[in-house]
Structure formats: C-alpha cells, structure tokens
C-alpha cells in the first residue's frame, strides 16, 4: 500500500523522531536520499550543472545539504536564495564549504533545477518573486524537494503559479498531493526516502499490485456459481444498446459466478439489446431473479429511474452508474446500504450543484463531501480516480494509461465493480480494487497505445490471473 499522511500527521511524527535522534540527523537522511535520487537522474555527478532554488525554511535546508553532497562529488552547483536573510544556516555553510556558489541570477544552462522553495510549511501558490524565477526556467528539468512548491500539500489543489516537477523526492511518507490530482500532475514521478518515522493510519492510500492480489475474491474449493455471487446488470436501452453489452462485459469478467441481464421495457422492446448481449455473452442469463449485487444506469436513458427503483427494491449492494446518478435522489438515495456511485466530474457537478471546474480543482474534497452527503462510497472517475468512503478515508488509483479515457470504459468499470460486490467485497474494496484492475487491464491490453472498452474487459481475466500467480 502506498500511504499518504497529512502535514499535521507528518509534523507530529517528526516531533517524536526529533526527540530521539541527534540534532540534524533527519535532515541529513533527507539530504542523502535527495542527493542519491539527483545522482540517479543525472547519470553522472562529476561536471553536472545543478541549480538550487532555495526558500526560507527547512525545505531549503534539505536542498542545500543535498547540493553540498553533489558539489563534493564534483558537480557545479549554483544556488539562488529567495530569502537570503532567512536561509538555513547550516545548509548554506555546507554548500559553500563544498564549493557551491550563491548567484543572483541563474546561468545560461543547467542539467537540473532543484525546487527547495517550500515544502510542507507552504501555503498557497508561489509568491511573485519565486513565480517569476520558476516561470523563466520552465524549460529546465525540475526536481521538487518533498513537494512541488505552490501546490496544496493536503488537498492537491493548484490555484496559481507552481513548480511543475519531472521528479519529486519526498521524505518520511507520501503526502496527499503526491497521489491526488490536480496536484499529482505537478509532481511527476514520485520517489520516497524513508526517514524511519512512526506514522498513524493513513487517510489517503493507493493500492499496489500485491494489495489488489490480496483483496481479489477467489472461489472456495467447493464453490458453485451461486456461492460465488450473481451480479445483475440493469443497463442499456433501445437508444444505447452498446452500453448494455459493455456493462455485461465488465460484469462477466469471471470474478463473480454468474451475470443476469435485465433490460428496460418489455422483452419485445428490448429484443435488439438482448440479441447484442447474448451474441457477445451467451453465458449471461436474461431476466429478473436473485442477485447479490446490482449495477444500474449506463445507457439507461429514460428508463433509469424505473431500473434503479427495481434494483433498490432488492436489499443488496448496488453500483449506481451514469444515467442512474441523476435520478438517485428522486429514487430515495442509497444511504445506509453498501453502494458505490461512479460519477465523473461533470456528473458529480450536476449531482451536487457545484461547477464542474470546482470538482476538477478539488477532486479529493469533492469526492469526500459527496461520500458524506450520499452516505455511500463515491468513486470520482478521473486520471487518478478517487474512491471516498463516507468516514473520510480515500483510496486513489494511480494506474491506468491516458488511453483509458475512451467511450464505454466506464460501462465496463461499473460492471466490474458490481461483480466484485456480488463476490462479497465491501463497497470500498470493490470500488478501489475494481478501479485498479480496470486501469491495469487497459495497460495490459495495450501497453503503449489506444485501447477500446471491449479490449479492457477482455484483458481483466488475464490481469487477475497474473496478480494471483504473483500472490500478495
Ligand atoms: N527539520 C528537519 O530536520 C527536517 C525537515 N524536513 C523538511 O522540512 C520541510 C518543512 O520545513 P519548514 O517547516 O521549515 O517549512 P518549509 O516548507 O521549508 O517552508 C516554510 C517557509 O516557506 C515560506 N512560504 C510559505 N508558503 C510559501 C509560498 N507559497 N511561496 C513562497 N514561500 C512560502 C514561509 O515563509 P513566511 O510565510 O514566513 O514568509 C516559511 O518560512 C519539509 O517539507 C522537508 O523538506 C524533512 O526533510 C525532515 C527533516
Ligand atoms: K519544494
């Protein structure tokens, strides 16, 4: 599990660590890890040209000590001080002693620029002087120290000038900004340096491969299709036939024992949709019956309210997707039952009466508030999908290629989450595991190129088999 802690949690853990370590030891650990990461990035240290941009606090201290380590190994290290009167004394002395130079303006070219402007002590966007300097150097490769300066650490908010890093070297633990967009986009690749901190449970996490392997449902030796769980899909309509097929494709990934498909309207009206579903998935059973979880909404159009009411009449977990999201409240909501809502930013904006840009700007906060308001798990679908539990916990999905932003992928995801619910996972696990598997299946289906929703669905069994082979 990749764990992210808030600034307050990190501060508390650091205080405890300071009490039992020699003065400056933590900063030296951080600086050593940073210098190693910079050396790896540079490939060669001797003769490398390095620019440090240093602010007023300990973030600048880490940066100066790392710069000193590189200068001792033969790098040419220049340093711009943004608050010369408040620069970390020890760090600056070490840099000077190692042969590093303080410059008023940066030279013409560098192999890397290091952002030591501000770390977890920062608030708000870059101030004008720092913003002007960073803006004039945007062509350089940037390494952010702990966090990219100007980006919100706890919420991942980006609301003004900030550093856009190629690599972020963070210390002690991840912070939410490293996982959650839009802030995560400003971090680039994230590298964690262990400081040996004693940390509490993390409010924000990202599942890793072995976590998903441990959570995947597996059939008991004597299982039959009903004990493995039946997932019911109420999706598709005369106008949106493909949505029914793709929802069933996600549900029929093999993680549940059986799929039921219940189209809207009479059997005559639904005949074309049924024909498509049966052609693609002859194993799916058409018609109502007992299920352990429902998936409702994709391509449902005008039938969505009727379909959602019918699903809610059964006392089983439910995935509320696409068109069903807009009729959720008129159907009485899902508070108090295991349920997953799967909106993208536009859908969540409509459901909560907030402009879409605000949802996109604060994905962590928006998903958390929606989970609390609707009383169920909310999966805000995006580049880094945010799965929020009503109690405030969050899991972020950091796998999945940008090619996954393709029509029908959401239908497959809804079906997949439904299968995991039917197999007995909690709503929180089903949503976060489903989102991870969906992203990883897309990457497996087509590692570096365009992928269709149907191909993602087809890759799910192989992806799961690989996970189970590797084991937790
Ligand atoms: N101590 C240790 O041994 C260890 C320390 N560690 C390191 O310490 C870092 C935290 O250090 P920190 O607490 O000194 O705060 P830090 O992030 O450097 O910045 C504070 C200064 O920035 C300023 N400022 C604020 N906002 C700003 C903005 N938008 N734009 C520009 N400036 C802004 C603000 O100035 P002021 O508001 O007072 O003018 C304030 O003085 C942490 O991230 C990690 O790198 C770890 O490696 C573990 C070991
Ligand atoms: K920084």
TrEMBL record:
Q: Pfam families given for it?
A: Carb_kinase (PF01256), YjeF_N (PF03853)
Q: Does the keyword Secreted apply?
A: no
Q: Where does AMP bind?
A: 381-385, 410
Q: Which residues bind (6S)-NADPHX?
A: 58-62, 119-125, 146, 243, 299, 344, 411
Query: Which reaction equations make up its catalytic activity?
Result: (6R)-NADHX = (6S)-NADHX; (6S)-NADHX + ADP = AMP + phosphate + NADH + H(+); (6R)-NADPHX = (6S)-NADPHX; (6S)-NADPHX + ADP = AMP + phosphate + NADPH + H(+)
Q: What is its EC number?
A: 4.2.1.136, 5.1.99.6
Coiled-coil boundaries:
none
Residue sites binding K(+) per the record: 59, 115, 149
Query: Per UniProt, which keywords does this protein have?
Result: ATP-binding, Isomerase, Lyase, Metal-binding, Multifunctional enzyme, NAD, NADP, Nucleotide-binding, Potassium
Is NADP among the key words of this record?
yes
- SUPFAM superfamilies given for it? Ribokinase-like (SSF53613), YjeF N-terminal domain-like (SSF64153)
Q: Where is the YjeF C-terminal domain?
A: 208-467
Q: Which cofactor does it need?
A: K(+); Mg(2+)
Name the PROSITE patterns for this protein. Answer: YJEF_C_3, YJEF_N
Q: Where is the YjeF N-terminal domain?
A: 10-203
Instruction: Name the CDD domains for this protein.
Output: YXKO-related
* Assembly, per entry: Homotetramer.
Which family is it part of?
Belongs to the NnrE/AIBP family. In the N-terminal section; belongs to the NnrE/AIBP family.
What does the function comment of this entry state? Answer: Catalyzes the epimerization of the S- and R-forms of NAD(P)HX, a damaged form of NAD(P)H that is a result of enzymatic or heat-dependent hydration. This is a prerequisite for the S-specific NAD(P)H-hydrate dehydratase to allow the repair of both epimers of NAD(P)HX. Catalyzes the dehydration of the S-form of NAD(P)HX at the expense of ADP, which is converted to AMP. Together with NAD(P)HX epimerase, which catalyzes the epimerization of the S- and R-forms, the enzyme allows the repair of both epimers of NAD(P)HX, a damaged form of NAD(P)H that is a result of enzymatic or heat-dependent hydration.
Output this protein's name. Bifunctional NAD(P)H-hydrate repair enzyme
Q: Which gene specifies this protein's sequence?
A: nnrD
């Amino acid at each position: 599990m990749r764990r992210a802690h808030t600034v307050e949690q990190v501060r508390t853990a650091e205080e405890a660590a300071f009490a039992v370590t020699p003065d400056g030891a933590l900063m030296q650990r951080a600086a050593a890890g940073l210098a190693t990461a910079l050396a790896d990035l540079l490939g060669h240290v001797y003769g490398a040209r390095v620019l440090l941009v240093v602010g007023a606090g300990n973030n600048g201290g880490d940066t100066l000590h790392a710069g000193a380590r590189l200068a001792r190994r033969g790098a040419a290290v220049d340093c711009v001080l943004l608050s010369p009167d408040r620069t970390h004394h020890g760090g600056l002395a070490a840099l000077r002693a190692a042969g590093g130079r303080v410059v008023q303006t940066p030279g013409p070219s560098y192999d890397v620029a290091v952002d030591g402007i501000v770390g977890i002590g920062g608030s708000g966007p870059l101030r004008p002087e720092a913003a002007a300097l960073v803006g004039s150097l945007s062509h350089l490769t940037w390494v952010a120290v702990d966090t990219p300066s100007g980006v919100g650490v706890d919420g991942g908010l980006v609301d003004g000038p900030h550093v856009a890093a190629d690599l972020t070297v963070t210390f002690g633990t991840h912070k939410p900004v490293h996982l959650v967009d839009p802030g995560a986009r400003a971090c680039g690749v994230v590298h964690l340096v262990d400081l040996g901190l004693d940390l509490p449970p993390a409010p924000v996490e990202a599942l890793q491969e072995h976590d998903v392997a441990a959570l995947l449902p597996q059939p008991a030796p004597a299982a039959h299709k009903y004990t493995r769980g039946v997932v019911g899909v109420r999706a598709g309509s005369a106008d949106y036939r493909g949505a029914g097929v793709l929802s069933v494709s996600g549900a029929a990934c093999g993680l549940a024992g059986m799929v039921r498909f219940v189209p809207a309207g009479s059997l005559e009206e639904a005949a074309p949709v049924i024909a498509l579903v049966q052609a693609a998935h002859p194993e799916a059973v058409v018609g109502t019956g007992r299920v352990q979880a429902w998936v409702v909404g994709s391509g449902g159009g005008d039938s969505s309210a009727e379909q959602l009411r019918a699903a809610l009449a059964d006392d089983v977990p439910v995935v509320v997707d696409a068109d069903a999201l807009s009729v959720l409240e008129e159907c009485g909501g899902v508070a108090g039952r295991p349920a997953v809502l799967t909106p993208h930013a536009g859908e969540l904006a409509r459901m909560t009466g907030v402009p879409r840009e605000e949802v996109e700007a604060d994905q962590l906060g928006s998903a958390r508030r929606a989970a609390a308001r609707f009383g169920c798990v909310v999966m805000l679908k995006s580049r880094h999908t945010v799965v929020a539990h009503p109690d405030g916990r969050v899991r972020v999905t950091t796998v999945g290629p940008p090619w996954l932003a393709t029509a029908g992928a959401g239908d497959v995801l809804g079906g997949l989450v439904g299968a995991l619910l039917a197999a007995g996972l909690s709503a929180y696990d089903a949503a976060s595991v489903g989102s991870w598997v969906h992203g990883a299946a897309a990457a497996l289906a087509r590692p570096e190129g365009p992928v269709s929703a149907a191909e993602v669905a087809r890759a799910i069994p192989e992806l799961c088999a690989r996970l189970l082979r590797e084991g937790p």
